[in-house]
Amino acid sequence: MSAIIEASQERARALNASASIPQIKLMQPQDAARWDEFVLRCPQASFFHRAGWQRVIEQAFGHKTYFYYAEVDGRIEGVLPLAEIKSRLFGHSLGSLPFCVYGGPAASSEAAADALDRQAQQLAATLKVGHLEYHNVSPRHADWHAKDLYVTFRKEMDPDPEKNMNAIPRKQRAMVRKGIKANLQSEIDPDVERFFTAYSTSVHRLGTPVFSKKYFRLLKETFGDDCELMTITRDGQLISSVMSFYFRDEVLPYYGGGMPEARECAGNDFMYWELMRRTCTRGCRIFDFGRSKKGTGSHDFKKNWGFEPTQLHYEYKLVASTEVPDTNPLNPKYQLMIRTWQKMPLALANMIGPHIVKNLG
């Protein structure tokens, strides 16, 4: 009898152990709601882990996606969104997540994170990509290649706008007040039209390819009120505009741009202050100024606001490639292309740009 009981207990232990092993599955449409429920409560997850990015990336860029989740006893314990980019110009890659600042595995247990990680590496090998790329906030793989290039800027806001104003360093605060004195006004837009005009004008001036208007429309349609468009005007004239994402108690001004007139009236300075002012009064606690490359004007602009940079840990596992890709605009080999792009008519740049930028990730 004791032998039977022991065998039964052993089977029970085996079943329990098997049940606790994370099962890796691909997200289906019916899984999206519980995927997002997990993302909302997982401290490691970000806005860029949301299920809606699958629709955006597939429909805006035509890339194949693999949104994996780890399940234990019917509960999601981890997610890892991935997208594959195949480009003759820029190579073949698998990443979490292209076009997004943050990514990589987000999990409530190390077992789930490890299982998702193994699945991503297995998929990368199966697809024979050049490399697998994670956009991590914290380092995960000491043995992978890494880029010491990107930092992010995040700061806690006070619920009182005046205290936030006084926290801005003096020179930058003077620029904000210049915009206020210029009688600039802010409006929330229901569509991307004015935003796209300001954004495309601005990136053309910088000499970088533009995203398609379809991409921004999809972002707005997919994320609804969590994707907000704020436009700055003066006497009805478009000055600048910003697309921001909302996640938990954070606001992330993610895409923005200004018309040439913005410089003379501190339009961009006023725009970011106005976003900060609006959002702290509605309960947002963190202002996430987003990613910047070290040594760029964008990096210095954010530091001028009193934000301190935090290193981002972008990691690369080489699969078929022998070196980490370098598609960043600071690469000297792209300088001629940038100068040529700046001289190109805006309408032509807006037509060609989306076909190039979709492969950059």
Structure notes:
Helix content is 40%, strand content 28%. It is an alpha+beta fold. The strands form two sheets. Strands 1, 2, 3, 4, 5, 6, 7 and 15 form an eight-stranded mixed sheet that branches. The chain has a seven-stranded mixed sheet with strand order 9-10-11-12-13-8-14, sandwiched between helices. A hairpin with a 2-residue loop joins strand 11 (237-247) and strand 12. Helix 3 packs antiparallel against helix 8 (213-223). The chain is globular and about 60 Å long. The protein starts with a helix and ends with a helix. Mean pLDDT is 89; it is low at 11-18. Residues 171-303 form the BioF2-like acetyltransferase domain.
Rg calc: 23 Å
- CATH topology heading of the largest domain: Aminopeptidase
Fraction of residues in β-strands: 25-35%
Structural class: alpha+beta
User: Span from first to last CA?
Assistant: 64 Å
Number of strands: 15
The low-confidence parts are 11-18
The helix content, as a percent range, equals 25-40%
InterPro entries: Acyl_CoA_acyltransferase (IPR016181), BioF2-like_GNAT_dom (IPR038740), PEP-CTERM_FemAB-rel (IPR017469), PG_Glycine_Bridge_Synth (IPR050644)
Protein name: FemAB-related protein, PEP-CTERM system-associated
Organism: Noviherbaspirillum suwonense
